[in-house]
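Input.
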Amino acid sequence: MIFDGAKWISNGVRQYVGTSEGIYSNPSPYFRKDFQVKGGLVKATLYASSKGIYEAYVNDAYAGDELFTPGFTNYGKLILYQEYDVTDKLKKGKNSVGAVLSEGWYAGELAYQKKQYFGTWPLCLVMKLVLEYKDGTTEEIVTDSSFKTTTGRILASSFLDGEVVDNRLPESYEMFDLGMSTEDWDSAVEEGSDFSLLKPQEEEPIRFRHRLKGMLIGHDKGDIYDFGQNTAGVVYMKVKAVEDTKITVRHGEMLDDGKLYTANLRRARCIDEYICRKGKQILTPTFTFHGFRYAEVIIEGDADIIEIYMNVCHNDLARAGYLETSSELVNKIYTNTLWSQRSNFISVPTDCPQRDERLGWTGDAQIFAMTAMYNADCKAFFARYLRDLRLDQRPDGAVTDVVPDLYGLTGAGTAAWADAVTVIPYHHYLMYGDKTILEDNVEAMKKWIACMKENSEGLIRPAVGYGDWLSIEDDTDKSVLATAYFAHSTDITAKVLRILGEDASEYEALSAEVKAAFRAAFVDENGVIKGDTQTSYLLGLAFDICEDRALCFEHLLRTLERKNWRLSTGFVGVRFLLPVLTDMGRADIAYKLLLSEEYPSWGFTVKNGATSIWERWNSYTPETGFGNVGMNSFNHYSLGSCVEWMYSRMVGIRPATPGFGKVLIHPYTDPENRITYAKASYDSEQGLIDVSWEIEEGVVVLQVYKPADLEAEYVIDGEIVSVTIDGEEAPMSFAGDAEEVEIRYIPAK
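Output.
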């Protein structure tokens, strides 16, 4: 094992000794060892992990630029470790190595119960520094009792409650400067050498990726700053202060009558506090983040703010997709979704970044997975999340509602949540084409199918769970939804087995039986599904359950008309709304819903100031004000699943074969020309695909750029006027193999 010879070390503190009011956290321990480097150093590699979260240093330089390492996992089953190339941070002679720790996900209070779910004190560190020399020799510096430990400027730190920092004490990097003596530091305590749970981090780390300038907009107890975007991050301030000045930073997503709105944070304190030294200094936390757009800075003493920014953090996933249309409303829905994805891709796909929750809800993740993969390269990110999911899968096959699982907080085996085990791997395969993801998850899929079958009566699933979460006065029967997902996950499992060359007959037969049971139990002689909701018909069509698709679609249209052509779906149903309408020939209604600014709609949230996707359609309304503070986030990505439709239907970029081995180009333009152009690019596994269309005097001008060796399948809904390939007119039959194509056509009515 990579850490052989090392020990887990701690500062020996095994109980709460903190002194910061409102934060259940001990002062952050620092660990350091000084050592000698010979001449002829060729390479230096640092391996590190912790029970807690850590920031590693070599001399007075941060070993990397990652945040919140080693990441959010079920620490009882998996702990990640990181690898850093620190060659250029060392010099011949005396050097130092070490880290500063905080409770983080391991021993910090988590979620709305504010409990320590995975561990408690002591916080532990493990490190190995491998030095390779020109003469072929190596040296290893490992954590053991020879490391020194103390506490410093970080008095308390919590994801939910914030951080308390005494800026009169040395900066963290100064604690590792060779001029800082460790004579009065204590010796570290060895805590064993069991490294069996350690695995390397393979997904992209969390980093600071954007900086937003704060604008002073008002005053309450302190000055209120607007950073222009609701997202996740920390306030970064440069101040000039008088010694002992206290500066408090409060965070909120919204304003209420000019004051910071924090009621929706529930039990999350979300406050950072600083005691200033004399002179100019930087104030920003190390081991926390907040979900906010606004911050209130309260100064007790004398200080001037020279600069104030928001540093935005998220997993550093490469941007894969870009999209733009002639509609500023649609563009805003798209960018709001991008920001909500960024805000909630912090180690795992979380529900929200601000309140006392921030959990990896499986239902949210599976609904949003395709949108996420169009927006960014999520290949490693979702592979890691699925590994965590498998680790937490119950012995009976039930998948937990949140991953990593917080024991006793939520349940398991919930329809549309547990189905993440089938949906995400299959969508991952469609987008990236790597069968490994199917091989890794197929047994977990089978276990989940067996669990559903065991916990059904006549193949009908019970009416339990969250249902079509946050639907609008149109509650879909939970048994209908659960049985539909039973059929859907069984279908997916059968497809996966066929892809892997295995016998799928058992699951194909079971899927047919579940669909038949669904129809017998829930569909009457007139084709009405029990409950008669938009989502029930959407699932019937999307999951190919209804035998008479035309009749099922008529009922869907009827339920939309009944709502005056407004949606009533929750976040489970909404993912299928625009694709089903479009695929069934009613793109006009899909565009009508997308472009609506009436409640409930995406446009309604934009009209009311949203810069990210709201949790509820009615998180805020001018008539009733803020929604129920018991659950009212203004930064949830789930309802942003409509962006998948923008890429795949509006612009028309879809994988015709897994991993875009062949691309399907099938755009659906707006029949009423409310949107006159749309363009998108997607950086697929086969290269960049760029598609745009524009309407010129009733003619659609479709332009496609793609790698020459990527075959395209075109579906054009209308009368083709001309085809130009690489600048010259050509027959349509040549378009599939061409690099640059322009097709002019008159769209079908």
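Residues 478-499 form the longest helix (22 residues).
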